[in-house]
């Protein structure tokens, strides 16, 4: 009997040792990877659920998708017109010349400045000196600001000489790279 109790005790100790050794291995190689996969799937589910909510809200905000696409297309064309990929200074100078003639202004000088390359666009500095009646000059400036290109007025100097207004415009014209 003592031998069988000793044998049982050894078997029990071996079994306990085996369980103590196997449980961490089971946890490391079976349970923990499944938990990681479950966490990954839950994050993916949350992301997809968020995307679905965004799409549902978009569908509620814009029920007529063709109308929305048409509006976006129109805005894209307008943006491409005012902010072209190329500097296209020739057309801008033609526009300036036409507006000067329309407003009966005299061009005294037009000096292109330096081109400054930014990350995704260019800035082209231009200095324009012109002469004419005050209200004609103001209308010209308004037409230039509302014109076909994105232009920033950096400086405007007005001088009255012999009943004529002489104006020096420092403008910046933008284009994409």
Automatic annotation (TrEMBL):
Keyword tRNA-binding in record: no
Alphabetic keyword roster: Membrane, Transmembrane, Transmembrane helix
Record-linked InterPro entries: PilO, Transl_elong_EF1B/ribsomal_bS6
Taxonomic superkingdom: Bacteria
Pfam families per UniProt: PilO
Family matches, as PANTHER family: FIMBRIAL ASSEMBLY PROTEIN PILO-LIKE PROTEIN-RELATED, TYPE IV PILUS INNER MEMBRANE COMPONENT PILO
Name the record gives this protein: Pilus assembly protein, PilO
Source organism (scientific name): Acetonema longum DSM 6540
